[in-house]
Amino acid sequence: MNWQRFYEQFVDGWQVLHKFTHPRHMTVYYNREQMKAIWNYMNTEERQLPIRCIWHYFIIVQIYIFFLSLLYGIPESLDSIVDLGEDILWVIAAFFLCFKVIYFLNYADDIDIIIDTLEQMHHEPKTTKRIRSIQREHFLLETGLSVAWYGAMVFFSTVIVSHPLWSAQTLLFHCAYPFELHDPIEHPICHFIILLTQIFIMTYYQLWILYTELFSVHCFSQLAVNFQILCIELRELNKRTDDEQHFSSELRRLVRCHQRILHLVQRVNEVFYAPLILQFFATFALLCLSTFVVMACRDQIEIVVRFAIFMMMTFSYISYWSKFGDMVTEKSHEVALAAYDAYQYSSKSSKILKSQRNLILIMRRAQKPLTMKANPFPAYNLSNCMLLLKQCYTILTVLLRYLD
Questions:
Q1: Closest CA to 278 of 75, 17, 98
Q2: Helix (H), strand (E) at residue 31
Q3: H helix or E strand, kind and range, residue 257
Q4: Residues above pLDDT 70, as percent of the chain
């Protein structure tokens, strides 16, 4: 493993913060490198390395064994609503993880195209210092949020690992195996191996899912940044040149840039279509389930704390996606206003009448704001996030009344 890949992003972030350098790469580029460092990003290039392929399929088998063991243990929890709720919660989370593993196995090359295109746009010559400043600000924002998610992951892992110390459960997660292999009395060696496997699975795949989610959602952020840069260049277009030919060539470049970003938004929605749908259902189910258990067992502090942490992490996760989805919609709409400003300036100067047609086309296209969504489901934005929480509350109220 190339350990340098893990901390390159933070070294770069330190340089950007203290020396005001330009980020050498985007955060999504660094996240992909971090996934490669743990040997779990199987694009065409990585598949040509035999050892990595063997490792990749080994950990796939491990996560599926873990998922099946969770399913096998559900019948043992039917007598307790708390234990049953916890088991179903982990089954949903494990299924979501298994799906993501298979998905990234099959679509890594398509994701590479998106990341490489965004990286190419990141390195294109910048016309103003303001644009470089915006890129630095977003890089520091994304890196800071990544550090916060690292901290949340460490805290969550600590709670899970310490669970057997203050409960009757002997494993990190309740599961069952044939021939009672999970029983610490009858099969102590097998029980110890299962415990080590669960610790490995939790640590390894928490890192993996963190990297996948970071570079997935930060693709939204980079699309918003590129829309913002396009707005700046449109507003600065008339101030940079009085030459009609130069103005026309610059405008054509910006039109192509706008078309490329539009294509990228469409491409992101297509490539992440299936994960976005599953994510919508999984987060809804996890929020409902964890909140229900917290409300049903509000007199048991240990259970409330454990599920409240999971509930808050799930809420933060969906809010994170929604906020960056809002950014894409907002910045794509601002392109129309920036094109209108450029059109107003060129109308007064009567110098480039032919180019005004291109500005009108940009305005008309940008008046329909873009959204990050998987049809037919709602777009990822904060309004729909609040609607999701409202529906969770409604369902929970009905269930609690039924139980009472």
A1: 98
A2: helix 27-37
A3: helix 244-271
A4: 91
Taking CA atoms, 137 is separated from 144, 151, 164, 404, in Å, by: 10, 21, 43, 51
Assign 352 a pLDDT band (cuts: 50, 70, 90): low
The pLDDT assigned to 354 comes to 59
Q: Quick one: which of 199, 42, 188 has its CA closest to 110?
A: 42
The larger pLDDT score, comparing residue 169 to residue 69, is at 69
Q: Where are the beta strands (DSSP E) in 274-337?
A: none
DSSP per residue, 229-243: HHHHHHHHHHHH---
Question: Which of 327, 335, 319 lies closest to 371 in space, CA to CA?
Answer: 327
Phi-psi region of 26 (alpha: psi -120 to 50; beta: other; left: phi over 0): beta
Task: Dump pLDDT digits (tens) for 204-263.
Answer: 988 898 899 888 888 988 999 999 998 888 888 766 556 667 777 788 888 888 889 989
Query: What is the identity of the amino acid at 364?
Result: R
Q: What pTM value is reported for the model?
A: 0.86
Rg (CA), the chain: 25
Vertex 177: Cα angle to 176 and 180 (nearest 5):
95
DSSP 113-156: HHHHHHHHHHTSPPSSHHHHHHHHHHHHHHHHHHHHHHHHHHHH
d(CA 93, CA 16): 36
